[in-house]
Specification:
Order of helices and strands of chain B: EHEHEEH
CATH superfamily of chain A: Ferredoxin thioredoxin reductase catalytic beta subunit
CATH topology of chain A: Ferredoxin Thioredoxin Reductase
Distance between the termini of chain B: 21 Å
CATH class of chain B: Alpha Beta
Number of strands of chain B: 4
Strand content of chain B: 15-25%
Number of helices of chain B: 3
Oligomer: heterodimer
Number of helices of chain A: 4
Number of domains of chain B: 1
Strand content of chain A: 5-15%
Radius of gyration of chain A: 14 Å
Shape of chain B: globular
Order of helices and strands of chain A: HEHHHE
CATH architecture of chain B: 3-Layer(aba) Sandwich
Helix content of chain B: 25-40%
Largest sheet of chain B: 4 strands, mixed
Distance between the termini of chain A: 37 Å
Radius of gyration of chain B: 12 Å
CATH superfamily of chain B: Glutaredoxin
CATH class of chain A: Alpha Beta
Strand order of the largest sheet of chain A: 1-2
Shape of chain A: globular
Number of domains of chain A: 1
Strand order of the largest sheet of chain B: 2-1-3-4
Number of strands of chain A: 2
Helix content of chain A: 40-55%
Structural class of chain B: alpha+beta
């Protein structure tokens, strides 16, 4: 399967997961395309579409928490930012994703 | 000038933006791409992130302060260059 075909498939599957959670793909099309491409690369290498912005620790329990879309594992944190860590997904009402800062859970006083 | 050291991922656009921020403001920095590092280096980086209570990249150390994430306003404040950053 080509990278473009796999990106299209991931878009389809991810939308099914994130929409019921109140998220959507970022309107920043260029960012979304870049992130999806990284995920396809990570999937080719590791067999799983990990988040491109979080570390793979080779600790299965922790690594499963960064499989995209990882929103359910970081709900409080991502809801507070109105975006996920890498920015592939934003809250459904967001129209200007560039205005959303990337803040750590610690910055927001959220315990993990 | 405070020493700037960062841990990043080669796949992360926010890590790229962070490197660009420091380069554009002529702030010298060192970086290690976690995903391209050897096993021992990865283990050391994870210990450092865990000790700081951090879990994501970019992870930036400016002097003795740590910033997790692409936070240009905070980088500028810690570097004392707020006036140069919009």
């Amino acid at each position: 399967m080509s990278v473009e075909s796999r990106k299209k498939a991931l878009r389809y599957f991810f939308a099914k997961v994130v929409e019921p959670l109140g998220f959507k793909f970022t309107p920043d099309h260029e960012l979304a395309e870049f992130l999806l491409e990284q995920e396809v690369t990570l999937e080719s290498k590791h067999g799983i579409s990990f988040c491109p912005c979080q570390p793979i620790r080779r600790d299965r329990a922790r690594d499963m928490q960064i499989v995209c879309p990882c929103i359910p594992f970081h709900r409080e944190h991502f809801d507070a930012m109105k975006r996920c860590w890498c920015g592939l997904f934003v809250h459904a009402d967001v129209t200007d994703p560039g205005s959303l800062p990337q803040l750590s859970a610690k910055d927001l006083g959220i315990e993990r | 000038m405070q020493e700037v050291r960062m841990y990043t991922l080669s796949t992360c656009p926010w890590c790229m933006k962070t490197k660009r921020f420091f380069a554009e403001h002529h702030i010298p920095f060192e970086f290690t791409d976690y995903d391209l590092a050897d096993d021992a280096t990865q283990a050391r980086i994870m210990r450092e992130l865990d000790a700081a209570g951090a879990s994501g990249f970019p992870f930036v150390r400016i002097g003795d302060q740590v910033v997790e994430g692409y936070q240009p306003a905070r980088f500028a404040k810690l570097l004392g260059i707020e006036s140069q950053v919009r």
